[in-house]
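note to self: the first set is below, dont mix up w the second
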Amino acid sequence: MAIGGGARPKARINGASFCFIALTLISFSLLLFSTRSFVVDVKNVGLSLFSGVRGGIYEVSSLASRTVLSIGELATLQQEYAELTDRVTRYEQLERSSAEILQENVRLREQLGFSQSLSYRHIPAEIIGRDPDNLFSALVINKGKHSGVENNMAIIAYQNGAQGLVGKVIQAGAFESLVMPLYDVSSFISARLAISRYDGIVEGQGSPDSSLRMRFIQKRARDSINYGDVIVSNGIGGVYPTGINIGRVSGILYQENEITMEVNLESLIDFSRLEYVFVLAAKEAEIE
């Protein structure tokens, strides 16, 4: 009985082992299938992540490359812009210089034409400054004794198609001379009304912006004087030749209790634009 009773537990053990093995195989199969899917998913996720990182690295490197190239191009463009700006500036300077030269040629041709028409021996000169002491509101010309300039020689100029009196030489140096303009308060010019032929004395009022004044005109000349009449030098005194234009009548001053009358006149010379002058020496008829 003891032997027979021990055989039954062994059979139960064999059946349980079979079930355990079967379940183990089934679990292993399920686990293997699940693991393969997991591995595949991990691989896919890793591939996606790697692709994203690789794309980011490419974008960053591409951006850095484009930035470096842009900086280089910007530096090149700035250099080219600076060169073009400098070239434009030079062209503008050349254009201005060319225009100034053309204008200078026109002015010089006008002066040359006037010089050829003068009946006086004359010395062309250029205004180069003013008397620093300003004692006589003097102008400075670039000709002196070395060119034949002497004291008390008359100075005329050509502007706007007409000649006009400028003043006289008051101090002739070796290569430069001082000229007292007719608007100086110390300037006195014996003059005549060109149409009515009445004489008087033209005096300066101290400023090129102030009118000149002709004094000591006979009162009976009143009805013969009109605005715009030309006043010329009459040659009395020997400093200023006869017939040099001085100015035009701009005002008539008449008082009943005075024995003479006066007129204001505007100079024919615009001293603010005066550049070239002519120093008059003598008539051609007096020169051999």
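second set (the one i keep forgetting abt)
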Amino acid sequence: MKIEELHHIYKSCKSVCTDTRKLQKDDIYFALKGDNFDGNKFAKTALENGASFCVIDNPTLKNISESFILVDDVLIALQQLANYHRKHITYPIIALTGSNGKTTTKELIYKVLSSCYKVKATKGNLNNHIGVPLTLLSFTKDLDFGIVEMGANHQKEIEFLCSIAEPDFGLITNFGKAHLEGFGGIEGVIKGKSELYNYLKENNKTAFINTDDKTQIEQIGNYTKCSTFGSTDTNDCVINFKSANPFVHVSYNNLFIESKLIGNYNYGNIAVAIAIGQYFKVLPDKIKNAIEAYEPDNNRSEIINIKTNTIILDAYNANPTSMLAALNNFKQLEADDKKYLFLGDMFELGISAKEEHQAIVDFTENNFEDNIYFIGENFSKTKTKSSTQKFSSFEDLKIELKTTAIRNSTILIKGSRGMALERILDIL
């Protein structure tokens, strides 16, 4: 079937679905395959549950129903359909990537632009080779903007996602030590994330550049189609960091903006949302209100009060750069009570894992006196002081905490998603 025909069928359906458990009546179902599942096996169920059409790549199913659409590869068909649909979108597409803060930044941009325009953005963190196509296919013709988050853990992935989404505007939140195993070190991270800049340059599209970040300046080079933001008066949008104790406060256009985000590392995320708002003529008061209204969730820099304790829950993900930023922020945080640290393993570091985990241990022990807990196989193998507590698994930590009374304390919980350290909340 030609992509034009598939697009015509897609437009007659309610939405795109890849999971029969979430399927709605009149959806078009794409039978994707993974390492441990084959969506083709659920195509008949999808039809029984109300799907209008099912896109499959198992020829033996073709004659079961006229509503089955046979393609060579369902994933490729999904990606091609998304790109074909994108070519029919007339409003701007804003793409963003980076090592840290992508989802928070995406939500901030969405809040700011939504104060004046009809906008749709990536849901959650659906930012990969499947998530980006699904995001694009959720964009209807009545929008003013589409925001696409792009994630990557190896070279050429951002380049591929750009070829699907064809963004008109782009930004990189930062370059950090994330997914070192796939990228092959920090230089590989910089090269991989900068594939977004390469696309913008090659297609004469606009980049939003944080001039307070030297790496961004270096990677964009002498490209002139940029909208700059930062703390100096030479920028198109001037934003100044004021404080982060614990919440980030910035000044912009003679306005004092008080966010509900903690840590000075969130300054850049807030700043780019302000800059994009200004670029697209959102009034300063509306920008301020949108930033101040945003509240983090899903284990991302949340402040939670449990009994007598104040908890900073930043357990959605972790890498050496974000871990160090969180620790620096926690160190500077004014607190009258005790401070506790619960730090979990950082994943996808490859051969750098031992070195990076030891570096975090050394920094932590040099800056915090006691009440330090490290959790995970990597941290359990590090060299620590006798007062530092290490646990190879969460279950071992759980046993310890059941006999430990933590009261009147400020607590930082941070680790990679696979560690699921938010479980500590139930114990506390």
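remember for set 2: The first helix runs from residue 3 to 11.
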